[in-house]
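Replying to the earlier thread about multi-chain prediction with a worked example.

Input:
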Amino acid sequence: MQLSSRHADLEAALNLKTVAVALAFVAVAAAEAVSAHHSVPVNFDQSRTVTIEGVLTEIAWRNPHARFRMNVTGQDGSTVEWLVEMGATNTMKRAGFPMERFKIGDHITIIGNPGRRDRSVLLRETVLADGTRMNPEMRPNPGGGAN
Amino acid sequence: MRHRLAVLLTIGAVLSGSIVASAQAPDLSGNWIRGARIAFGPWDFTEAGQRKFESYDFKKDDPAYGCIGASWTRVWLNPNVLVRITQAAGQVRLQYEWMDIDRRIPVIDSTAANPKRSAIIPKMPALGHSAAWYDGDTLVIDTVDVAPGYVSTMEEWAGMPQSRRMHTVERLHRSGDVLTIETTHVDPTYYRKPLVVTIEYRKTDWELMEYGCTPEDAAVVAPR
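Result:
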């Protein structure tokens, strides 16, 4: 395998800003992408987990990626936008992900893999204001493939 | 009268393409989803290939940001979406959920000098022109005339290039509920020897869904 120095560049590109959220970096299993149109390992650091909480400002159930935009308020009181990427909406429908539970203005928590671009995250689990926890891999893939 | 009706129904079925092209053709029909097994054989870049690979920038070079399939290997690599295969007289059709790619390939005599090939799929120039035939229990798909780009934009293979000289041969073989796609890539511009990629699919009872990708959504990869 001719892995190149480009991958060091990818690591260097990972520049997470600290916001008023818990940033918990833990090892996670090397599970494959929730889905991919651009490669998840290339675009997200699957060795780390970040937790953010904020207010939903956009909900887009689309392919190739569903997405949220969230306003996240930092400790200094400033608010910045984060992009939350998910798998393809088709995949999430098959997983039985309860899309109807999300509304603009909801205060939610996102746990996921940090992006290699600033303020982006790949959703692994979400926690609603009432404490309900959900993830997009709720139904196993009948093909046995990676989710 | 009943006999005549049966004959007419049989003729109708043949004309509508609902009967497989050849009695020897393997039955690959149905819906499939990618399994866990992916294997890239060893590769050996030319100097130009190494430069092209090194220069790949995942933030802007991935054709998927424009809802475009970079190569057949890239299309097969996508997880969690279905492929529906339909075999008919003189044609095999592969409908990929990813990017709604509808691939209709003529089944030809593999010894023909200038075989009929598929037309370019709209907006997918990197997927070239294909012709197919059966080699025993294997469906063979031969593809040429691709636009330059990338064999893969995923994982550690992201940025592996392809030139206009790329010639791919996909071999689809079914064993029970497992479909194995072995693709040989021959591209002397960027590779000193053929690259072989093997990807496994599994039968699924899920149904194909519309994908409906738009570049406006596919390009959203960062906050504002």
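The radius of gyration of chain A is 15 Å.

Feel free to reuse this layout for your own posts.
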